Amino acid sequence: MYKVGNSVEQVYGGSVVKQGDRTPFGFVFRDEAGETVNIKNATIKIKIANGKALLLEKNGVLKDDYTVEFSLGQADITGSGDMRLEFTVTYSSGLQEKFPSDDWQRIKITPTLDDITQTGIAYLTFEKMKADFTQKVDDLNNRVDNIVAESGNSNIEIMESRKDIYGDIFTTLKARLDKEQRKLENIIRPNVFIENFNPDATGTNLTTQPFLDAVSYANSVTRSAENPANLVLSPGTYRIKKTADLLIPSLKCLVGYATIIVEDAFAFVVASNFELSHVKIVSKNTYAKTEAIFKPIFKATSTIENVTLENVIFDSVLSSQDGTVRASVAANFLAVKNLKMRNIEVKGYRYGILTNGLSDGINGNDLRFYNTELPLYMRGSDPAVTDENYSKNIQFDNIVHINTKTQSQNYYKQAGADTILLEKCDTITLGYIVSEWPVERSCYLSCCRNLVASVWQLKNALGLKCVGGSNTTTGLETIAYGFDISNIHAVFDDPDITQQGYIAEFYWAKKATVKGCSIRGNGIASVGVSMRHYAEDIIIEDCFGDNLKRGFVEYSYVGDIINPAPTPSIAAGTYTSGFKKITVRKNTVYNSNTLDYDVVKLSDASPPAAGTYRYEDIRIEDNTVVNPVDDYGMVANGNYCKGLINIDSVNGLSIKNNKMIGHKRTDANGNIITLPFQVGPNSKNVVIIHEETVHNPDFKYVWGTLYMSADSKIIINNVHRNFSYQDIATITIKHDSSNLRTTKDLSMNFRISGRTSISDTTDFSLPLIGYSASGYTLPNLFGVIDIITDAGDTGGYTITKAGLITLKSGSSAFFVTSTTDAKYALVKDGTLPRYLMRFKLGAAATSFIVNYSINAS
C-alpha cells in the first residue's frame, strides 16, 4: 500500500495570472506527515513546463526558514496555458528532495491582448523565436561570407561545417543553415484564430464567409507543406453552406469542442500534416440506403502523410434513426502514411474511416461507431495486381461498433458491410473489439496476411472471415496467410438470425491459430470454425462451443466464394483444394447440434478418385463433446449430433483421447453404429485411440465403415441397461505384415481382448460379439473364451476359423454348447450375425467373469 508523499502549498500570488504579470509566488513545503519543511540555508530550483516541453528554470528566493518565492521576469517566455511546477530542494547537508512527490504543483497563465495582433496570429513565442533566430542566421551568414571571401572553399573548417552530426553533407553552408531554420520553424506552427474574423458561433446564422476568410488566410500563411498553419476554433457552433470542395488547414479547438454543421454536399480537402482535434462535425447531408454516390466530409485527393484525428465527433441529423437514411463518409483518404486516430466517434454514417492505396502506419485507438454500416475500410490494392501491393502496419485498439437489429438490416450493400473490412493488407493488429449487430460480420480480411486479433466481444455478429483471392482471367492467386486469433467470444441470442454464425472462417488460407475463443448460440450459432476450398496449417485449440446448429469445425469444398467488391470472386477449382495440417485439440463443445452434423464435419461436393486425398495430416485430440442423452446414453430427442467425425479421402488422421457423450449412432445408411466416428475406405495412415461407453450391448462392436491403421486402439465399455452387466474390451487393428501403416477395414481386420462381468438370476442371452441387426455381416472369427463363476466353476470355449464352437477340455459340467436349464452356453445365433452368451434360468443367482480374445480370420 502506498503512503502519502510530500506536498507543496501555495501561500500567496494566486494560481491564475496574466502573461506579463510580475506578481511574486510564495510556496511552503510539507513532508509525508503534513509537517512544514525547514528550508533554512537550502537552495531551491523551480522548473516550469507545459504539457509538451520544459519552458523555464529559475532559482527561488528564501523569504524565511519555511517560504520560497519566485516571479516571472521580462525575459521569461512561457506562453499561455496550464503550467506544471516542480521544486528541487538542496539542503545544506547536500541532500536533494523534489516537491511535490505526487503529480505537480500547477498554475495557469492566461493570454493577454498585448500579444495578439489584428491578423489573428499569436506572436508571443513564435515571432520572437523567429526574429531572434533570423537575426542570428543573418549575422552568421555575413560572417561566413567574409570567411569564404578571405579563405575560399579550401578552408577545412568551412568544409567540415557543411556536414551535420548525422554525416549528411550539404553543397553549401547556407543550405545546411536553411534546413536547420526550417526545422526550428516546424517546432511551432502558426495559429490563425477564427474569432478574429468575427464569425457567428451561435449556430443560428451561417458562418460561411468568416470561415472561408479564416481558411484562406491560414492557407496563405502556411510556409511549407511540412509546417501548415492551424485554424484555431473557439468553442461554439459554425454553420457552413458551400457547394464546392474546400482545401482546409488543420482545425483545432484548444478548449472544449467546436461544432461545424455541414449544410451541403461538399468535402473538406486535406493535405499532409493535417490535424483535426476537439471538433464535432454534424452532417445535414443524408442519403437513402439505395443511393450509391455520396460526398465524404473529409477527403484527400492525393497521397498524404502525417494525418492526425484526435477527439473528433462525426454526428448526423439522423444518427439514431433506423438506418434507411444515413450521412455519407466521415473521412476518405488515398494512400496515407502515418495516420493516427484517437478518441473518434461516428454516429449515423454510411461509412466511417476509409483508406485506399498503399498506406503505411494506420493507428486507431478508442474509436466508437453507432448506426454505421461500415466503420473501418482499409484497402491496399486490387488483388488482381502484382503481389506485395499491401497496405501495411495497421493497428486498431478499443473499437466499439453497435447497431440495433433494425439498423443492421438497412444497408446499401451487404457484401463487406462489416465492423472492419481489410483488403490486401499486411501486418495487422486488432485488439479489444466490441461488435454488436453489424450488417454482416465483425471483420472481413480479403487477401490479407500477418494478423493478430485478440479480446473481442461479439453479439449477434459473425466473427473473422479470412479469405484468399483468385482471378481466373489473370491467373493470379493470393493465399491469405498468418492469422493469430485468440479470446474472441461470440454470443447469438436472436432466434431470427439465419446467417451461419462462427468465430472464424478460412477460405484459401494458410498458417492460422484460433485459441481460447468461444461461441454460444441457444441453438442459433452454427459452427465454431469454418473452412472452404483450401486450408493449411490451422490450429484450433482451447476453444468452447455451446448450442451449435451445426458442428464445431467444418470444411466444405463447394461452389464459388464471393468477396466484397471490388475484389474478384474466388472461383472454385482454380486453386488446389483441400484441408492439410489441421489440428483440433483441447476444445469443449456442448449441445452440438440440431442439423444431423458431426462435431467435426468434412464435406465434399465431388470426392476425389480412389488413391487421391482431399484431406491430409489431421489431428483431432483431447476434445470433450457433451450432448444431452437419454437413459441409455443415446443422443436425446431433439439433438441429432451424428458423432465426432465422418471422413473419407484422408491421408494421415489421428483421433486420440477424445471424450464423446451423446451422439446419434447411425451410419450414412441409417444403420446403428457403436462408435462416434467413421472413416471411409479411400483413406490411409489412420490412427484412432478412443474410449467409449455404450449402454446397449445388443449392438456390440457395430462400427460401420471404419478404417484404421496399426497402432490404433479402441476401448469399449458396455453397460447393460436392465441388469448388472459390464464389459470392457480393447479392439486393435490386425497388423499387415508387409506394411504396418496400411489402413484396414476394422470389421475384417481386428483383435478383441475383453472381460465381461455378469450377475443375474434371469434367463438372459447377451452378445459376446455381433449385432442385433441383419444389415451387417459378421466375419469369420477365431479365438478363446474363459469363464469362471462365483461357485468356482471354470471352463471355456474355442471358436475355430471355420466358426465352430468347441468346449475347452477340462471345463466343468456347468458349461455346455447348447441352451440348457441351469447351464451356461456359448452359441452362434442362427438368424443374426452374433455369438451369444446364454444362461437358462437356474435355481440360484449366479455371477460370471468372462475373459475372451477373438480375432477376425
Q: What does the average pLDDT come to?
A: 85
Name the structural class. Answer: mainly beta
The N- to C-terminal Cα distance equals 77 Å
What fraction, in percent, of the residue positions are helical? Answer: under 10%
**Proportion of residues in β-strands:** over 45%
> Rg to the nearest angstrom?
40 Å
Query: Helix count?
Result: 5
> How is the biggest beta sheet arranged?
46 strands, mixed
Question: How many distinct beta strands?
Answer: 65
**Outline, from the CA principal axes?**
elongated
The poorly predicted ranges are 115-127
Multimeric state of these chains? single chain
Please tell me about this protein's structure:
This protein is mostly beta strands and 857 residues long. It is 8% helix and 48% strand. The protein contains five helices and 65 strands. It has a 46-stranded mixed β-sheet that branches. Strands 2, 4, 5, 8, 9 and 10 form a six-stranded mixed β-sheet that branches. Strand 54 and strand 55 form a beta hairpin. Helix 1 runs antiparallel to helix 3. The two termini are 77 Å apart.
Q: What would the keywords be for this entry?
A:
six-stranded mixed β-sheet; 46-stranded mixed β-sheet; 5 helices; mainly beta; elongated; 857 residues; single chain; 65 strands; 8% helix
